[in-house]
Amino acid sequence: MNPRIMEQRAPDFGRPFREVRPTFADAEVGLFSDLLDEMKSAYGARLLSVKLVGSRARGTATSTSDYDLLVFLDTCDHDVEVPRLRIVSDRLAAKHRLGPLSLSPMTSDQFHGLDAKYEGITRNFMRDAITLWP
Description:
Elements: H1 3-7, E1 15-16, H2 17-20, H3 26-43, E2 47-53, H4 55-58, E3 67-73, H5 78-96, E4 101-106, H6 108-112, H7 121-128, E5 130-133
Parallel strand pairs: 1-5, 3-4
Antiparallel strand pairs: 2-3, 2-5
Helix pairs in contact: 3-5
């Protein structure tokens, strides 16, 4: 298969949100809905997937835990996307007042390269992830 086509496929891991929806408060569902609206509007067809990871996905969050989200794109220039998503995360955190959001943009290839810097992180993300979209 063409590597470019593979890169454009949504990463296939994580429990579907509909399976775990009852474990989240309505306010959190509202946050996720607003976030997905923003991501779809900003990225359109470039958006491949959005996954909740970390303590919120594992169900071990405290009242001060942040919301860690992986935003998978077909291409990702961190110098452009990180500042762009920081504005979105600050706006949504202020609107919903549920805690900080950490939005991490990346391609599937970049995701699989994370282990070179943070050993075992992709395995942990894949084990705990909740797929918010698609």
